[in-house]
Amino acid sequence: MAFDTARLAWTRKPRECSIEPDRIEIVTEPHTDLWQRTYYRFRNDSAPVLQMATAERFFSFVVRCDFSGSAHRFDQCGVVVYLDSENWLKASVEYENEDFAHLGSVVTNHGYSDWATTEIPATVKSMWYRLSRREDDFRIECSEDGTAFRQMRICHLWDARDEVRLGVYACSPEDSSFRAVFTDLAITACAWRAHDGQAPDEDL
Hints:
This protein is mainly beta.
């Protein structure tokens, strides 16, 4: 299965964007975000999401995200699996200040989001992501060079039973805007190998 930009579809198309076979650009609009309920007690479902649909149950999706134009708190762009407003996952770098940014991921199941993060230097201006699917489980990895990937998290999407949609997103939750650039998009055989340790429980 190849990553074909002709198969991409928007959930909330931004006013300014461009799609080429090997490059996608999204200019974010102020006050756009993806979040559901947890802690903040608000629901934001306004970020532009560009995705393709697939029923493949085992694959990896790779993309390089350049966010060098971001300069305002919470500006972000990255990889996403968006099923609907209450079921999705995303991974990104969020601009925080001139000293550090947050490399993190959010998983939202049945309308409640979580957020797992670590701080990275603000001098990091691009990040590769590799999103792998094994049925309804997912692994997110990141890399600064596109070669050496490190695991960010393993998670479950309760509603990812058959067809899913995957791709990229960008947003600016506060009063800002920047140009997010996505390149080196590819879908490969699943790089997340089957577990070779303890056998699965028969009733799971």
